[in-house]
Amino acid sequence: MTTSMVTFFTTLLVILMSFQTESLQHPMPSPYYSGSVKAGYWPSGNSLSPSSIDTRYFTHIYYAFVEPEPNTFNLIITSSDQNYIPQFINGLSSRNPPVKTILSIGGGSSNATLFSLMASTVKNRAAFINSTIQVARQYGFDGLDLDWEFPQNEQDMANLALLFKEWHQAVVLEAKVHRRPRLLLTAAVYYAHTIVLIGPSRRSYPAQAIKDYLDWASPMCFDYHGAWSNFTGYNNALFDPKSNISTQFGLGSWIQSGVPPSKLVFGLPLYGRAWKLQDPKVHGDGAPAVGAADGTDGTMNYNDILEFNKKNKATVVFDRSAVSYYTYAGTTWMSYDDAPSMTRKVQYAKSLGLKGYFFWQVGGDRSWTMSRQASSSWGH
Q1: Which of 7, 12, 18, 311 is buried deepest, with most CB atoms within 10 A?
Q2: Could you tell me the residue ranges of all domains in the chain?
Q3: Given the residues 22, 67, 69, 149, the one annotated as active site
Q4: pLDDT (tens digit, 9 = 90+) per residue, 174-188?
């Protein structure tokens, strides 16, 4: 540990002795804790300027992503981050109505083994936690988000529970020491409580720790199917009578695990999944495919899908049972959401009592069409 880290945690230990242990085992009140969440991720360097985000449709915006250093587990703030983070914070601070900003750590391209090592010991967790708080305060973020994709086994999940507990205790104490609102703590998680389709083993998230120590968890209810499969499928079907790969099943499993619906913020994609059809004449859900659609990496933003439909006079189909759209033209087939399916999904989540929703990612929208629709469907 560095000298500053030792000093920080020595201070925490002293303060711990002056407070009842029980008061640190459960979430402390925060001015940001109540109310609905309408969130979106902004990938650093995105062509959409943070100062252009229409905050009428959001309550929280995430900065994505930073990662821990492999040896010290301190956050790496690259030269690009040093440029983009102030743009992000300053750009959003000028918007009205105001939004809360959250620093997201990890992401889909991050190293899951690195997070496993970080969470495996008290010392490593302490180094990581201290660094996250220091960086968040240095740049003026309102919260911290962990996007570990994904814990690989039950030991990782047990360590994740310890991380959430210690992280929560640290942000509570830091707020007490400096007499300021504590930082939010959130985490992006698998669409279902138990991970079964990714990695070597079946493993379940620590529901009790999520309930006790996070402001909310964010199930990523998308990427159910993609060009890695040799058949087409819906990116984020609300219902699927043939399998458990659906938002209905995923959210239900989280609630059944004991995580209150009021601690869940579910994910919606502002992009579609795109395949190349094996035979253009066979173009339904589950049609044979041969990888990503030509000219794509297997994805396409909502804005670009609308342009594709117009340019190619594509056939658009709404699947009422899945509550999803698909479109096809030539050999290209894509599944995506449009306003009516977005409305149904948001209303369904609200009917379950969820805390809110988030988008990946805000730059994929078209003139804030989907953001406006979701916000209106959710209400206040």
Answers
A1: 12
A2: 3-220
A3: 149
A4: 999 999 999 999 999
